[in-house]
Amino acid sequence: MPEIKSMFREVLPKQGQLSFEDVPAMVLCKPKLLPLKSVTLEKMEKMQREAQETIRQQELVQKDQK
């Protein structure tokens, strides 16, 4: 094939950026999973269960004494 001479001469800069395109694009990331119960709610439920268990034990002791 014969070489075709271009009308345009290629010019590259000696310093700096050659080109820059700022194209916003969506970035997919992993979904953030939130806990169904907060830590505080879990602590409150645990305290409530312990209190109910203590009450049951006291009731059993009272029934045994009667």
TrEMBL record:
<feature type="coiled-coil region">
    <location>
        <begin position="37"/>
        <end position="64"/>
    </location>
</feature>
<protein>
    <recommendedName>
        <fullName>BBSome-interacting protein 1</fullName>
    </recommendedName>
</protein>
<dbReference type="GO" id="GO:0097500">
    <property type="term" value="P:receptor localization to non-motile cilium"/>
</dbReference>
<dbReference type="GO" id="GO:0060271">
    <property type="term" value="P:cilium assembly"/>
</dbReference>
<keyword id="KW-0175">Coiled coil</keyword>
<dbReference type="GO" id="GO:0034464">
    <property type="term" value="C:BBSome"/>
</dbReference>
<dbReference type="InterPro" id="IPR028233">
    <property type="entry name" value="BBIP10"/>
</dbReference>
<dbReference type="Pfam" id="PF14777">
    <property type="entry name" value="BBIP10"/>
</dbReference>
